[in-house]
Structure formats: C-alpha cells, structure tokens
Amino acid sequence: MSSIRFNRRTFLEFAGAGAAAAVLGGCSDGEGESSTGTRAIRWWHIANTDPMLSQWAAMASRFETAHPGVKFKITPLENEAFKTKLTTNIQAGDPPDIFHTWGGGVLFQQAEAGMVKDLTADVGGWKDTLIPTALDAYSSGGKTYASAVDTGMVGFWYNKELFARAGVNAPPATWADYLDAVRRLKAAGTTPIALAGKEKWPGHYYWAYLAMRVGGLDALRQAAADKNFSTPDFVAAGTRLAELVALQPFQTGFLAAGYSTADGQAATVGNGKAAMELMGQWAPVVQRDNSAGKKGLGDKLGFFAFPAVDGGKGQGTDVFGGGGGFAVGKDAPPEAIEFLKFIAQPENARIEAKTAGVLPVVAAAGDAVTDPNLKLVGKALAASTGFQLYLDQAYAPAVGQQVNDSVAELLAGKATPEKVAQAITTAAKQG
Amino acid sequence: MLTDERRPAPAAIPPPAEAVRRRRRPWPTVALFLSPALFLFGLLVLTPIVVAAYASFFNWNGFGAPSNFVGLDNFRRLLTDEIFVGDLRRTLLLITLSLGIQIPISLALAMLLNEPLRGRRVYRMLFFAPYVLSEVVTAVLFTMVFSPNQGLIAGTWLADTDTVMYALFFVISWKYFGFHTILYLAGRQSIPPELHDAAAMDGAGPWQAFRHITLPLLGPTIRISVFLSVLGTIQLFDMVWVLTGGGPIRSSETLAVTMFQEGFKRYHVGYASAISMVIFLISVTFGLLYQRFVLRRDLEGAVTTMGDQR
C-alpha cells in the first residue's frame, strides 16, 4: 500500500507537529556504521498498516539473512507525519538511508541540495524490467534519483447502483456529459460527489485534470518552466471547474471533511452516501476500510477515466496520478541500493502486487494483479498517451501548496478562475 | 561550598552585617549551580531564537546554509500577506472573545462552586476534566462532535468560513474554562471569611459583597488568568491544526499555523522564521508590558522587581 497518500488517522496529523521535537530524539539514530561491523540501514516508508507493513518487514529480514552484517531500522510513518519528519531530517542534513518518495519537484529539490544519491547507473541496471514510463517521475535532466515501486492513476470511482437509479447508464465521456450526470444525480436526491475539502490535495485533482484536458500536458510543463499559470488555458480550466462548483455537487460540510476519517470522503462513498469520488488507485481499499462494517461497495463500485473537454488540446487518454518509489539518502551504505534491486526482483514485486493490491512497476509482476478494479486502472494506464504526476509533487513545494490552497478557494466559491491562476503564478515566481 | 567553609559560623555575624554579607556572596558556588540550567536554557531556548532571527533575514528553503540575504524583505512581505494580517485579526478576535466571554463565565462558575451546593466536588472535577485532556485529543473529539452529518452538534460549523472561528472559540473555551475556574476558586477561598461576614453585617447584599470585596481581592488571580489566556491564544497551534488544519481555505489559521504551513509545507524557512520572530516579539512585548504595568503590584517584592533596585 505504499502508494497511499492520505491521512490514516486525523490525529496523526499532529504527529507532524511533534516531528520538530522528534528531531531531538532523532539525533541518536544517526549511527550509520557501528564499531561491531554491522551496517545499519534506516528505512522510512509509509505503509503503516498491514498487509504491506509486515510484508516490508519480512522482505527486510530476508535481505538481512542474505547479507550478514546488514541491520535494518524500519520506521513506518503515516503519510502526513512522514512528509513533515522527512522535511525536518533533510533540512538538518540527515536523510534516512532509504525513504519513500513520490518523485517530482520535491525529490528534485532534495537532489539539488545533495541529500539523495544519483541512482542513474544503479537503477539503469534493472530499468528494462520495469514498465516504460515507470521512472519518469523520478528522473530529471537525464538523471534518476529514485527507484520506482508501484504506479497508478487518478480517476472517478463511482457507485453503479446510484448512477443507474439517477438514469445515468453510461459513464460520461465528455465534461458536458459529466455535468449532466451530476445534475441528474442531484435531481434523484443523491449527493453526486464526495470531497475531502479539509485536506485540499483531493480537490487539486479536479483542477489539474481539467488543465490537462484543456491545455494538454505541454501546457502544464510550459507553465512550470515559464513560472506563468495566468494563461487562457488555466483560466479556462478554472472556469470549467467553477461550472461544476455552481451545481453544488459535494456533500454537506465538505470543506471540513477529511479523506480517510469516519465521515470523510472515502467513507461517504464507501457507505453509499455519495455517488462518486475522484481518487487514485488506492480508493477501493480506503473506501472499504472506512465504511461501516468494512464492506465498501463491492461489485457496485466502478471506475471511469476523467472525461474529455470539448475543444481541449489534451487527450482523454492522458492520465494523472502517481505511484511510490524509494530514494537513497546521501550517506547510505551501498547495501541500501542493493536492497532496492532486491525488492525490484519479479518474485518480490509480485508479493506486493498480490497482497497489497497495488500496480507493480515490474513488468513481469503484472500478472499478479487480480483485483478487477485495479485491472481497470492497469488497462487505462497501459493505454495512456501521456502521464502527469500529482501537481503538489511535480512542482516545487511552494507552488504545489499554492495550487492546493487556491483550488480549495475555487471549490469553496471564494475565488475566481483568474485569481487562482494569478495566485499560482505569484507563488511560482516567488520560488 | 568552598567559600562556606571559610565563612565564620552564622551566629558570629552581627545583625548589621547585611552589607558585608552581600559583598561576600559566594559567586563560584552560584555559577556552579546555575550552569546546568543556563546551559540548557541557552541550548534549547536562546539558540533557537538566535538561529530563527538569523534565518529570518534570508530567502532560504532550509537546505544547506542560508546564503540569499534579503534583509528585512521577509518582514516587509508579512505586512502585505493577507493570511498573516488575517492571523493577527483572528488572534485579536480570539483574545477578545476569551476575555469577554470565557473569563467571566469561569469567574461566575467559580463563585457558584464556592457556594455550599450539593455535589460541588463532582462539579469541580467535571469542570476541570477537559483541562486534563491534551489539545490534540480535544480537537479529535470535537471533529467528531462537529461532524456535519453524524455529529452531536451536526451542521457546517467547521466547514463555513463565517462560523469556524466561533466553533474554534467554543472548543478552546470548553477546554480551558475549567482551568480558570479552579484558579478563581482558589483565589476566592483565600479571601478571609471575616470580610464577607463584616460586609453582611453592614447590610451589603451579595452583589455588593462581590463587587466591593470579592472582585478587588481576586484582582491578582484575574490578572494572572488574563495573562495566561492571552499568551496561550497568541501561540495557539495544536488544536487548530488538528481541528481545522487552518481551514476551510485558511480562514482559521493562527500565527503558528501559518508559520508551520510556510516552513514545513512550502519550504519557505526564512519566511517562516520571520513569522516565528513576530510571534516571539509580540509575546515578549506583551509579557513585559503586562508585567510592568498590570502585574506590578502583584509582584511587588518578588524577583522581577529585583529587590527594589529597579
């Protein structure tokens, strides 16, 4: 479940605040090599729940057996706590030996500061065993800074029963159809969309996808390079989103809703209280875990790609999303890289695909995916014509956060599409 | 200890030797005993303040050493930052609400609990219980209480930019009123009963007794309670972070939350340091002025007046 980027427990968010204090405690685990000749590998990952929590531990101990003298020190962290704790450690010049990464601007900023190892030569050794675009999110300027583990994409997860009841018989293929479906769902007395407004990142998916459909992938790349988002394409994307907001499609009180809390976005869909959510490949698992009786929607759950926008430059088959990978800290022992190679072995990647229900990047492990929903995602990914990483990871942190904040304002009906584009441009220029 | 041995037995010192004793203060011993505390204070309090002050003059993302010196730019930017100015406004709002509503209610409850009520021990314990909880636990509890569809107080209190600050104030009050109540109760119980007896004998009603005896004699307690309340509000973080995350759309952010957002989410460490310096300066200025002008008579003879040398 390493690709899951949500708050497992809301209160753990506070662990992030406590992380500053943790640095003090963290001073003690700086021993890379001890005098006895054992080499410690500090490994931070975000699979803080089973099945992957124990699978990673098992994989580490198998590696230890094969490599005498290597000793793992694993720290599983909740997503938000991980980000904060990692930031603190990296700013202190003490990155863990192996740590989770989503790639993109955040990783490249770490690379620029010399905090992670350049893995171009090492990962190049097993690059050919991976699916074609696997390393894109972790590579910049011809250099690769992390090894990919799994992949995925964002799309609409919907309740087939509620759609049928509202008379929406086929998943909408265009934005106009989509708005129409939302109107029908509302007319049928169903809440069309669940959204975690408190956490902001789920909201930015809408704006990002619309920008991709309206302006195309190049527009997103160009805007980041020019530090200019105040272009007609981005304003048009905001305008399309404002059309959706005007229909008031979200659940009551969505601005204060979390993602994976008892009454959050995932639970609302999982309990059949809203017809759909725009979310990544992990959505079915989280819906199930947070729904009443941990049942989720089962067979009623369906998946469709983000609709195309009429007259847009982007392809309806361009996908938005991301997976997880591992970066290696600057002072890591060579065995850390050896371990990344170890988990990229097809038999090990297959374990992850089978037990955790994620899409492996190792091509030979693809056959281990059995979940029908995940197969749908895999099929959409395989047929994709382009890929865009989550904007809050792809761009520099300040820009990514501004995207999240500004889109949240738009979703709350408190900002115009122009103001959103302008605020992001300002943040990009400020750096 | 060394100097002590050389010192004559205390009985040998004649009473007028006050000045002599002052001159002979055993400085090495003082230094020895002070040094651990001074070392920790310097390391954990002074150093971070100095580092933050230094960082606040740089445009710095926290990686490596700061190199892009920008002078007072970060502070200038603060003045035009809507969020930061909003933080100040929201802090003022919370202070006003706390002093105007929470403190009077606590005072009233303390007066009530001072009366011979049936089960007043139980009430006392119940009122104090929320204070024992951590802010985080309180906030998690109230995210459930305010849950829009299944909460005890269902509705969009936390989801509406117009109501979120009042919901937040409600939670803060729930957590802290018991603490202030206990302070007032202790203050009230230290007022000698003779005063009220005498007032009653002179024909003073309950309101007059409260107005002219209880309230003036509770002065020191009230002043301390206001002091704690204001400082707590300026530094408010945990509860907001867990309860609202500063949202919806940054409408409930406090100074500390904005600092966290800038420093840890946007990697604007220099700018975040500037915010932390502002928090520090506001707290210190308030603390000093308040002690100088408001708490002065309560502290008469205590350490801060430096034995009348001021």
UniProtKB/TrEMBL annotation, chain A:
Domain of life according to the entry: Bacteria
InterPro entries: Bact_solute-bd_prot1, SBP, TAT_signal
Coiled-coil annotated residue ranges, if any: none
Gene3D superfamilies reported in the protein's UniProt record: Periplasmic binding protein-like II
Classification via Pfam families: SBP_bac_1
Database matches in PANTHER family: ARABINOSE-BINDING PROTEIN-RELATED, BLR3389 PROTEIN
Record protein name field: ABC transporter substrate-binding protein
Automatic annotation (TrEMBL), chain B:
Chief location bin: membrane
Pfam families (alphabetical): BPD_transp_1
Keywords: Cell membrane, Membrane, Transmembrane, Transmembrane helix, Transport
Domain ABC transmembrane type-1: 88-290
Keyword set includes Membrane: yes
Membrane topology classification: Multi-pass membrane protein
Family: Belongs to the binding-protein-dependent transport system permease family.
Protein name: Sugar ABC transporter permease
Organism: Paractinoplanes durhamensis
